[in-house]
Write a structure and sequence with these properties.
By secondary structure, this protein is mainly alpha-helical. The chain has four domains: 6-85 and 246-313, HUPs (Rossmann fold); 88-242, HUPs (Rossmann fold, 3-Layer(aba) Sandwich); 331-386, Helicase, Ruva Protein, domain 3 (Orthogonal Bundle); 394-491, Arc Repressor Mutant, subunit A (Orthogonal Bundle). It is built from 20 helices and eleven strands. It has helices spanning 19-35, 53-66, 89-101, 112-124, 140-148, 196-206, 222-231, 262-268, 272-280, 295-301, 316-329, 332-345, 355-368, 375-386, 394-401, 406-419, 425-439, 444-455, 463-470, 472-491; strands spanning 6-9, 38-41, 105-108, 154-157, 164-169, 173-178, 186-188, 211-215, 238-242, 245-246, 312-313. The longest helix has 20 residues, at 472-491. The N and C termini lie far apart (67 Å). The relative contact order is 0.08.
Length: 499
């Protein structure tokens, strides 16, 4: 255990929490919990145009829904706050001015138009476009003259003209970046806002972050960040760039591949425990072959040594399979609570169910959850438990209702059930087994049309479970309705007419 470990998750509040960001948050959380360290949540909201309070609330809500908590950050506090970059601007200004005073950074008055023209010229000459450093050696008089013209300077970091910066990445080893391609880059824009790399380093340094676990697309930012660490004379953290998550066709994951945000998966009826389990397996390998792992087991097993070096492939089928497992194995009361909003969304249950209604809902969810993969499917599979207004499956009608003698058999079954007491699993099943034996037919010849009569479907929970949940009165009424429907089919010489 290393209680000095401090990691951070620093999302930009410009949209929903993408599964890539959720995996980064999870890996940091698991690493911190495994080592007894601390997870810091910081909101990197210096992009004032695109950042919104709504996105911030959404990110916090998504993290809490997943069960990822943080030791310092928004709504929690901590000794290194504030934890919104937009509230730390004075710190960035102070650090930037100190770098200028030490000659490690300088004011640049080049306009965007001038920079664009020079970039264009360099490309035309076959050269790499990079800043030529013309503002490096401006005198005070020259600076004042430019400011008198209304020019507001940006601040650039001085980068050595020769040599290279080496990134010591946990997964890739040493990755070198020549200073030939690292020009004097901007750390504070002319409007006074810090750039991403500068604000990120200042905050990570001042918040004493020891390990930075993030997606590999940030690797190209790291040499510039290392140069900033060196300029402000702060120790480097351990950098660990986790391989990307790719779509099944190995392209960059996007909305065209389906749901990509935590909120979307939540609304589709996936369980937080299942999504956490699945995200952990995207780029990390457990100790054995078992892939269904509780959060406790994930914390116990998680180490950086077991994180892979190749891209992880997004597989919705696997996530759905994992979700089905959790749907079947989690505590029933928890599943009921999670299923209620989905049932309400389809107007199957009232906004505030009574205790009696909740007990009925509990029985229904318990019966159907073993045959579905998501909470949304629970609602779909439960419709006939809450409404008598359903049609009969067309293929089921042809297969089960149009057989000779089926109406008479259902009438006999209905009479037996009317006499059955108590109306429980054992008694209802016995009534059907006895009747099929007396008629000299297979039990399925009564069970299948009865299922269709009670549910309108050919698949679902056990028939006798359905009967008991519906209760005797509703079971008898639905059988009578189906018998009348079947007799109507006979009168119409086999023409299927749905009620």
């Amino acid at each position: 255990m290393d209680r000095n470990i401090r990691v951070r998750f620093a999302p930009s509040p410009t949209g929903d929490l993408h599964i890539g960001g959720a995996r980064t948050a999870l890996f940091n959380w698991l690493f911190a919990r495994h080592n007894g360290g601390r997870l810091i949540l910081r909101i990197d909201d210096t992009d004032l145009v695109r950042s919104t309070e709504e996105s911030t609330r959404g990110i916090l809500s998504a993290l809490r829904w997943l069960g990822i908590d943080w030791d310092e950050g928004p709504e929690v506090g901590g000794e290194y706050g504030p934890y919104f970059q937009s509230q730390r601007l004075s710190l960035y200004e102070e650090v930037a001015q100190d770098l200028v005073a030490k000659g490690l950074a300088y004011y640049c008055y080049c306009t965007p138009e001038e920079l664009a023209e020079r970039r264009k010229q360099a490309l035309a000459e076959g050269k790499a476009p990079r800043y030529d450093g013309r503002c490096r050696h401006l005198t005070t008089a020259e600076r004042l003259k430019k400011e008198e013209k209304g020019l507001r300077p940006a601040v650039r970091l001085r980068v050595p003209d020769v040599g290279e910066t080496v990134v010591h990445d946990y997964f890739r080893g040493d990755v070198s970046f020549s200073h030939d391609v690292l020009d004097d880059f901007i750390i504070v824009k002319s409007n006074g806002m810090p750039t991403y790399n500068f604000a990120c380093v200042v905050d990570d340094a001042f918040m004493k972050i020891t390990h930075i676990l993030r997606a590999e697309e940030h690797l190209s930012n790291t040499p510039r960040q290392i140069l900033i660490y060196q300029a402000i004379d702060r120790p480097l953290p351990v950098f660990a760039h986790v391989p990307m998550i790719l779509a099944p066709d190995r392209s960059k994951l996007s909305k065209r591949h389906g749901a990509t945000s935590v909120e979307e998966f939540r609304d589709m009826g996936y369980l937080p425990a299942a999504l956490i389990n699945y995200l952990a397996l995207l780029g990390w390998s457990p100790e054995g072959e078992e892939e269904i792992l509780s959060i406790t087991e994930l914390v116990r097993q998680f180490t950086l040594e077991r994180v892979g070096k190749t891209a992880a492939i997004y597989d919705l089928k696997k996530l759905t399979w994992i979700n089905g497992h959790y749907l079947n194995q989690e505590d029933l009361d928890l599943i009921v609570d999670l299923a209620v909003p989905f049932l309400q969304r389809k107007n199957l249950i009232p906004a505030e169910p009574t205790p009696e209604e909740m007990e009925y809902i509990r029985k229904v969810v318990g019966a159907v959850r073993t045959r579905v993969k998501t909470l949304a499917e629970i609602a779909e599979a439960s419709e006939y438990f809450f409404s008598d207004d359903f049609s009969y499956d067309e293929k089921g009608v042809r297969k089960h209702f149009q057989k000779a003698g089926v109406a008479e058999r259902l009438e006999m079954a209905r009479r037996r059930l009317a006499e059955t007491e108590p109306f429980d699993l054992e008694s209802t099943e016995k009534a059907y087994r006895d009747l099929s034996a007396e008629l000299g037919i297979k039990a399925g010849e009564i069970i299948h049309p009865t299922r269709l009569a009670l549910t309108g479907r050919t698949m679902g929970p056990g028939l006798f479970d359905i009967m008991v949940i519906l209760g005797k009165e509703k079971t008898l009424n639905r059988l009578e309705r189906a018998i009348n429907f079947i007799k109507g089919l006979v009168v119409q010489e086999g023409h299927v007419k749905f009620q």
